Amino acid sequence: MPTLLTLLLLVVALPLCGFAILLALGKRLGDPLGGYVGTGFSFAGFAAAVAAMAAWISSSYGFGYGVGPLVRSFAWLPIGEHAGQRVPGFLDFTIYVDSFTVVMLAMVTLISAVVHLYSLRYLRGDARTPIYFGRLSLFGFSMTGLLLSGTLLQLLVFWELVGLCSYLLIGYWNERRDARMAATKAFLTNRVGDVGFIIGLCLLVSFVGNTTLPDLWVMLSPTHQTAMSNGLLTLIGCLLFCGAIGKSAQFPLHTWLPDAMAGPTPVSALIHAATMVAAGVFLLIRIDPILTADARLFVVVIGAITIAIGSLCAIAQRDLKQALAFSTMAQLGYMVLGVGVGSRDGAGFHLLTHAFFKALLFLAAGVVIYGMHHKSRLEHYGGLFRRMPVTAIAFAIGALAMSATPYFSGYYSKELIVAHAAAWSQLAADSGRSGLWSLALWVPVIGAYLTPFYLTRLWMLTFTGRPRDLEAFEEAHEPGMLSFPLVVLSGLAVVSGFDWFPVRSMVDSSAVETRAQVSALTGPASPVNPLEHDWPSRVHLSMPDVETDTAPTSTEAGDDRVEAGAAQAAHLTHWAWLAGIIAGVVIYARGFALTERLARLSVLSAPREWLRHRMYFDDLYRWVFVGAARLAGRLIDRLDRRVIDGLIDRLALAYAALGRVTASADDLIVDGVVRGVSSGVLTSGLGVGQTQGGRVRVYVASAVLMLALTVIGTVAWAVLR
Amino acid sequence: MTVGLPHYLVLAAMLFAAGIITVLTRRHAIGILMGIELMLNAANLNLVAFNRFSAVGKLDGQVFALFVIVIAAAEAAVALAIFLNFYNNFATVDVDQGNELKG
Amino acid sequence: MELLRQNVLFVLVFLPLLGAAAVLPQRTGKSARWVALGVSIATLLLAGLLPLLFDSARAGPYGYDDVGGVVQLVRRLPWVPSIHAELLLGVDGLSLPLVLLTTFVFVLAIIASFKIEKQVQGYFALVLLLETGVLGTFLSLDLLLLFVFFELSLLPMYFLIGIWGGPRREYAAIKFFVYTFVGSIAILVALIGIYLKAGSFDLVRLPALLGDLAHTNPTLAMTLFGLLAFGFLVKLPIMPFHTWLPDAHVEAPTPISMILAAVLLKLGGYGLLRVAWPLFPEQALAAWPILAALAVISILAGALCAIGQADFKRLVAYSSVSHMGFVLLGIIAMTPASMAGAVFMMVAHGLTSAALFFVVGIIYDRVHHRQIARMGGVGATMPTYGRFASLFMFASLGLPGLCNFIGEILVLMGVFSAAKTGPVSAAVPAWAIYTVATAAAFGIVLTAGYMLWCLQRVFLGKPKEDTATLAPLDSRETLVLWPLAIAVVALGVLPWTLVLTLSDTTVAALLKVLS
């Protein structure tokens, strides 16, 4: 046990050490050395993750592969504990590890290590590489930390750090306007989703006082919880999902993903395969047990819309990376839809296989872009097979895997999702619902035909035909150091779907461990085990018009439906890869020739423009939200200055005016009296002074006069008495 | 008709009035001094007359009168000294020219 | 030891004042600077003793040692016996974090002030006088004494802005003074009213003494509460009483802006927590809709206003308005998490705003203007500076792992749980609480918006004409930035250990008074 925990902590700590060292010493290490340090730490992290996986599978303690999860809690913010006001588990720091975590850790560290290695060559000669590798390491730390998170709050912490890292890396070439705009856009769009996440989190805290995942699963399982109404739980589920909408680039917050292509291509590979967008699906898988049927419908609808947008837009993009970005979006739609229809294992499985082949595709695209001197538009390509055969083959393998070609990894995972989606829509049909519910089947099926088509288009336009940009073509090459990661990933893209490879089995085992954890929490005596009725019976049960007593036991009904769904899915999509590829080969056999001719038809050119402009979502958002915020800012600022400040200033002026009036009143009345007295005294004094003329005779005269008056007065007084 | 006290008093009053008028009207310093002498003599006359009619057998009035004469002499000496100075300062003995006492 | 416990607060409060007296007669500016720095560091070290002397685990009621209460290190001296006013100092979990913040920020502000060349002795004496005023306000438990210190902090600020400020300094200084003075008058009137009713100024005992005023004379109680709240809200500041803030900040010299944002605004929040709320809890509940509306307006409109600013410093100033909205929101929600969040937010904002104002000051020293539109690419010309600035801006927009996040998330969690528990849940309908909380939550998007937009325009991209060649950070600037950066990260990672463990029991005790 201590070994396992140490190894897991090492997986998180090693990238952090790499980041710290690069941050502190990056300038001294310089260009290649800093990269080596970062790469070294990332490979050490991968080694630790593999070792942890081995320890996990062979664990003989009360947790481990197929036994139960490893849960460790530490009080992080024990607010109110001293006063006895603490809710148990409130704001703990929890490590939750199950098989899914372990396999995700291995995948993330592997992709991260490969991307490090690839970046060494890709960014050679860039003076700021230590910064770049530091950010990559931070990215690895954030993502591994997220995977170990056992509470939603903790998840949010690492979630935001992942967002920060993608901001820093997308905007790495910040002297380019598109890069810095894209970085800001990515962060802000994610923030919008995060608001939903935070509100959901706060509602959870408000109602159950806890965000620890296993506790939530027990307390809030939709069929058994009593803490809140079903509608509220649906709301919480949808709000938490909002976070995933932002991170995993789901409609309507998907617009940042294509823009994020402004970052260096290895970063795109990392973001699209292992870290940023994977975080959203990971969250969704973690909160799957508390999603209600209505919340699931919401998730399914969003996923379906995203599949549609991603698949359609990918067809019309003129930029290799942009097209791949939309393909990522579509695949994320599959995963989200998968969680929605209750195919947690399918979504997790697809997340892992997708990581390998999407990293492969991006790194292959990176080789092309690097070889073509950072020209990423398809009109510069053509005929590159001769120049870069390894890359072409690797790209083809990735494309085949993603197209769900049998025996490639994507086939297994996507089939699982489509099968479960079919089962879900059949269950819905059983209970008299179709419409939106049937979307869950048809959109992924149509997407399955579009995926091979647009990937074939990319491959044909890039690697076959005549070179369209001869000058660049002549200098095109594929450096061996870039090809090596492609070989590794090609292998994984093929084998990661097989049963003997520890991906599918790990994902499946995670459900077993989750169940074990829940039983441990509720106690063996408790009849209530919210996860006992596992997928898809829960969906079935929560549909109100189904009479549970007339139906056979729900689990059996669900199993039937899964089998039927698998059959239907196989029937509908088994040859989709071939159909798509043939269509792609036929249409793009001669480069753009055929499509240019077709585009002259106005029926086709208008939708093409619409798709090229990404359905105008970006323009809409720019006008509506960004414009509104700036306008509001300016208006409020003006309000502030004119009205509030104006009022204050005017008050001050009025006050000053009043002051002047008072002052003059003061001057006239109060001061007037004072001055009147003083001037009266002065005048009279002067007047009296006049009499003191200094002339002796006047003195004498007045003395005589006064004497005379006194005498006369006295006499008169005496007489009158 | 016998000469009684009222006659003396009237004479003294007339003398005094003449002195005052002299002091008030004369601008010549010596003239004013003379007026003062007149007033003093009027007082002396009164003193002697009151002694004759009211305090028979006593010499109080005469003694007072003698004192007044002595003081008047001293006063005249001082006054003449002042006038001399006055003259030195103003080159005149017109008292209206001297208003140094002006307040 | 006992001697230390008895006198430490008095020494702490009056040490800067003595320092001010020592600074004034200095013959050269240089020695004045070093004396001021020495005094402020001594104050910081003394304040650093307080967490050791303070027993944060004592989970008593809101009272003194005689009831085993949370208010500790109390010292009373007679002052004006005829009106029962005392020199009464004490410390609890509300004031302790703020005292630490104050002493910390003052040291940094004094280091940042070393460039001041005009009337140096007077400047540093006023700064130290200000520190006494602020520390006195935080540590006074006598309402009259608190008011005196509160006013004492006002006056040095007026001169510091009015003499050492920018081109419109007189306007700004007078505006600042008049604005906050009007607030002070409101507090003074309330203070007199409280004394006439309760016959005491003892803040810890007043809640009990005023207990039945709410029932015997509700109008008077409401009036007194309104006056107190107004006085402290102006200081906080809360929209629409905030317009003194941008002007004061823009005109004030950099170190004074740091102090103003980091410490002086906290006087408002502290006043609400120490005076207005415990004395009139029922009135606070009755005024909930208005206060909540003001808080939300401050958060949202403050952030929108910041988006609309062309001046870097004004932008940071408006961010303060927005963040202080969170503080008010946390205070009015009256739950353990929200109150802890409000206290933490005050400390966190103290650090980030001081840091951001210093960041603005650094660029202003080099390009001599603050127009965002004329800057660009500073991150390329001054890489270290760019990294510090980004750190503080991300801290300010609430990135987890950095300090403001803890404050914001605790406040939001607290406000949401106020709908279920605590005094507010009984008095206010749940939908209103949820509306307020949701609206406030959107503040974090807007905050991210203006911060990132500003970051992008100032620090990213190609350097513009004004910012093409800039001198790198000098050692003095680095010396200010490093402690702030460390504190910002440390508080984000260990919020409990560093701050909340101090305030926890006090918040719990205060909540008992409030409910």
Per-chain topology:
The complex is a heterotrimer of chains A (721), B (103) and C (515).
Chain A (H helix, E strand, L loop, with lengths): L1 H56 L12 E6 L16 E6 L1 H24 L6 H20 L3 H19 L6 H32 L4 H8 L9 H18 L8 H4 L5 H9 L2 H12 L5 H24 L3 H21 L3 H28 L17 H14 L6 H22 L5 H28 L6 H6 L4 H16 L8 H19 L14 H5 L12 H20 L2 H13 L4 H7 L2 H11 L4 H75 L4 H25 L1
Antiparallel strand pairs in A: 1-2
Helix pairs in contact in A: 1-2, 1-3, 2-3, 2-9, 2-13, 2-18, 2-19, 3-4, 4-5, 5-7, 6-19, 7-10, 7-11, 9-13, 10-12, 10-13, 11-12, 11-16, 11-24, 12-13, 12-15, 12-16, 13-14, 13-15, 13-18, 13-19, 14-16, 14-18, 15-16, 15-21, 16-22
Chain B lengths: L4 H21 L3 H26 L5 H31 L13
Chain C lengths: L1 H22 L5 H25 L18 E9 L4 E7 L3 H18 L7 H20 L3 H22 L4 H30 L7 H4 L3 H4 L1 H18 L8 H8 L2 H26 L1 H6 L1 H20 L4 H22 L2 H32 L10 H4 L1 H14 L6 H16 L3 H6 L2 H30 L15 H19 L1 H20 L1
Antiparallel strand pairs in C: 1-2
Helix pairs in contact in C: 1-2, 1-4, 2-3, 2-4, 3-4, 3-11, 3-15, 3-21, 4-5, 4-11, 5-6, 5-11, 6-9, 6-10, 9-11, 10-14, 11-14, 11-15, 13-14, 13-20, 14-15, 14-18, 14-20, 15-17, 15-18, 15-21, 15-22, 17-20, 17-21, 18-20, 18-21, 21-22
The Rg value of chain B, from CA coordinates, equals 17 Å
- Strand order across the largest sheet of chain C: 1-2
Order of helices and strands of chain B: HHH
The portion of residues forming beta strands of chain B comes to: under 5%
- Cα-to-Cα separation, first versus last residue of chain B: 53 Å
Number of domains of chain B: 1
Mean pLDDT level of chain B: 86
How many DSSP helices of chain C? 22
What sort of overall outline of chain B do the alpha carbons produce when their principal axes are compared? elongated
- Share of helix among residues of chain B? over 70%
pLDDT averaged residue by residue of chain C: 87
Q: Output the number of helix runs of chain B.
A: 3
Corresponding CATH architecture of chain B:
Orthogonal Bundle
CATH C-level of chain B: Mainly Alpha
Largest sheet of chain B: none
Give a quick account of the main beta sheet of chain C: strands, pairing sense, barrel closure.
Answer: 2 strands, antiparallel
Radius of gyration of chain C: 22 Å
Distance between the termini of chain C: 37 Å
